[in-house]
Amino acid sequence: MKSSVIEQFHQSIEAKMACGEALAPLIVDASSLIVQQLLQEHKILCCGNGLSASLSNMFTQSLMLQYKLERPGFPAISLNSNSATITAIGHHHSVSEVFSKQVRTLGLPGDLLVIFSNGTNPSNLVQAIHTAHDRSMSVIGLTGAGDTDLSALLSGDDIEIQVDNDDRHRVSEVHMLSLFCLCELIDQQLFGGAA
Fold it and tell me: Contact, 161 vs 23, CB < 8 A?
């Protein structure tokens, strides 16, 4: 059993090492886009399903409160956090609209949608991207290898941070590290510090 645990650690490290160099410039670009939108007084909307919903909540919390640096909060909303709204939309409309309805209501031109998917290609994120584009919002997609429909929707104004790995758990681990990198870079760009 101990060897199984050690193997999990090795797989996690290997997944991160395999994509770190390729993702670094995309993470830098995404952090710059987020900073640009925040400086223009736009807000960040975040969403995801399952494990990715937890990442959405974590990123939103890090933006609204703080990451490491004590600083003012940034306007960020997790579209996953209001279970009453999500279940009402799912019941009265469709599960595929649980995020798009919220993007249509809360999103304004210039706001930014950040989606998280670990390779499951969910229809509710497809609809959220369509709606964000209809609202003149850019999208940052943290995706996995199986998210072909999501990838196809992202345009030149969008950024995709795709983890090329078929193991959804490894993808989520890399997404979490990517979030930590984003938070660090956002704080550095806005408040200074070592790059």
Answer: yes
SS3 193: coil
176 in Cβ contact with 23 (< 8 Å): no
pTM for this model (two decimals): 0.94
d(CA 88, CA 94) in angstroms, rounded, equals 9
Note whether 76 and 60 are within 8 A (CB): yes
What is the strand order of the sheet 138-144 is part of?
A: 76-78, 44-48, 112-116, 138-144, 159-163
Percentage helix, strand, coil, to 5, in the chain? Answer: 60, 15, 30
pLDDT digits (tens, 9 = 90+) for 7-30: 999 999 999 999 999 999 999 999
Give residue limits of the domains in the chain: 2-191
Burial class (CB in 10 A: 0-12, 13-18, 19+), 180: middle
CATH number of 2-191: 3.40.50.10490
- Say if residue 167 is exposed, middle or buried (CB neighbours under 10 Å; 0-12, 13-18, 19+): middle
Residue 46 CA to residue 79 CA, distance in Å, equals 6
Q: Where are the beta strands (DSSP E) in the chain?
A: 44-48, 76-78, 112-116, 138-144, 159-163
For the chain, the average pLDDT equals 94
